[in-house]
């Protein structure tokens, strides 16, 4: 699906409108099985041809990143020469444990951290450890004391599911930036008007240029719907209607998914954004198709090699 059928281009006249140059970053998760690991490196090789501003690598609930994030981050850096941001969470861990991992990243040459509170074990309510970083703002402050990291944090256009109010949630983002974060990566949101209102709300707090919207290409609408219910992201009625009766994995599902994500990306670029964050789910086909529709094309291997070496 890397190349989009000509028929799709005829259906989408906005493809003819030129766009300003767009940078993308791409989020991955550590593969968990030998079979997934074999597929993972093939997919990342193809995604690396986008020359993303950075890859980010997540970590699971209850883990700071030693379980799979740390070796994956280092191996991506070694293989592709692309900047990599390591997700680092503080839930369930002491400050000493988190600081030690941060120092290990720094010694290994990793300079970018995505600082997150993290989730408690499933079914449990979050409670800060007395000897840990309580929340993401505290983690950001602690990382700044460890080393001069570039730090990204999370933002929620539809409000964090545990936040008592939208105002509280926005103030929490402000606290994270004041603690030292330089970028707010958005949770995906399929309602672009909501994303733009969130941008405007951040701007009213003085956070004009830190927000990077998240884009979720829909690889499987049924799974995305279930996941969205769990994480507090909404599914607009028009989106549910669009995918009604469409089988995941079918050609029409892929075409619809590419069109939805690319149209959102193009509108956000038209609204002034120059960097978008893609939740690739370790899959290259749809991510490459969406980027192509948004004007971001893979770099030929020989060009990428020259770029990586600085020749």
Structure overview:
With 311 residues, the protein is of the alpha/beta class. It has a single domain, classed as TIM Barrel. It is 45% helix and 13% strand. The chain has 12 helices and 9 strands. A 9-stranded parallel sheet has the order 7-6-5-4-3-2-1-9-8, covered by helices on one side. Strand 3, helix 4 and strand 4 form a beta-alpha-beta unit. Helix 5 runs parallel beside helix 6 and helix 10 crosses helix 11. The longest helix has 20 residues. The protein starts with 5 loop residues before the first helix and ends with a helix. The N terminus and C terminus are likely disordered.
Number of domains: 1
Adjacency order of strands in the biggest sheet? 7-6-5-4-3-2-1-9-8
H-E string: HEHEHEHEHEHEHEEHHHEHH
Mean pLDDT: 90
Question: Mind describing the biggest β-sheet?
Answer: 9 strands, parallel
- What's the level 1 CATH class? Alpha Beta
Low-pLDDT segments, ≥5 res: 1-11, 303-311
How big is the Rg? 19 Å
- Helices, by number, come to 12
Query: Into which percentage range does the β-strand content fall?
Result: 5-15%
What is the second-level CATH architecture? Answer: Alpha-Beta Barrel
Quick overview:
The chain is of the alpha/beta class and 311 residues long. The chain is 45% helix and 13% strand.
Layout of strands and helices, then pairs:
Layout: H1 6-11, E1 23-28, H2 34-48, E2 55-57, H3 69-80, E3 84-89, H4 95-107, E4 112-116, H5 136-146, E5 150-155, H6 166-179, E6 183-186, H7 192-204, E7 211-212, E8 214-215, H8 221-231, H9 237-243, H10 251-270, E9 275-279, H11 285-293, H12 301-309
Parallel strand pairs: 1-2, 1-9, 2-3, 3-4, 4-5, 5-6, 6-7, 8-9
Helix pairs in contact: 5-6, 10-11
């Amino acid at each position: 699906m890397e190349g989009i059928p000509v028929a799709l281009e005829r259906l989408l006249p906005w493809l003819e409108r030129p766009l300003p140059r767009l940078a993308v970053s791409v989020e991955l998760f550590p593969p968990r099985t030998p079979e997934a690991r074999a597929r993972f490196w093939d997919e990342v090789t193809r995604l690396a041809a986008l020359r993303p501003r950075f890859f980010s690598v997540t970590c699971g609930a209850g883990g700071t990143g030693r379980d799979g994030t740390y070796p994956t981050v280092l191996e991506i850096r070694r293989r592709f020469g692309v900047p990599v941001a390591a997700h680092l969470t503080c839930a369930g861990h002491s400050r000493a444990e988190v600081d030690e991992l941060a120092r290990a990243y720094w010694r290994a040459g990793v300079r970018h951290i995505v600082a997150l509170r993290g989730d408690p074990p499933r079914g449990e309510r979050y409670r800060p450890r007395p000897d840990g970083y309580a929340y993401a703002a505290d983690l950001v402050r602690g990382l700044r004391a460890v080393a001069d990291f570039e730090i990204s944090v999370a933002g929620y256009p539809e409000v964090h599911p545990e936040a008592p109010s939208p105002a509280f949630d926005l103030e929490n983002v402000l606290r994270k930036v004041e603690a030292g974060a330089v970028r707010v990566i958005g949770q995906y949101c399929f309602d672009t008007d909501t994303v733009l209102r969130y941008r405007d709300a951040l701007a009213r707090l003085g956070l004009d240029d830190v927000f990077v919207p998240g884009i979720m290409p829909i690889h499987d609408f049924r799974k995305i719907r279930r996941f969205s219910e769990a994480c507090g992201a909404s599914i607009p009625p028009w989106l549910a209607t669009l995918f009604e009766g469409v089988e995941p994995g079918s050609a029409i599902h892929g075409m619809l998914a590419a069109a939805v994500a690319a149209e959102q990306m193009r509108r956000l670029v038209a609204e002034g954004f120059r960097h978008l964050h893609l939740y690739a789910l370790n899959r290259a086909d749809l991510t490459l198709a969406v980027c192509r529709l948004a004007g971001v094309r893979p770099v030929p291997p020989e060009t990428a090699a020259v770029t990586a070496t600085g020749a």
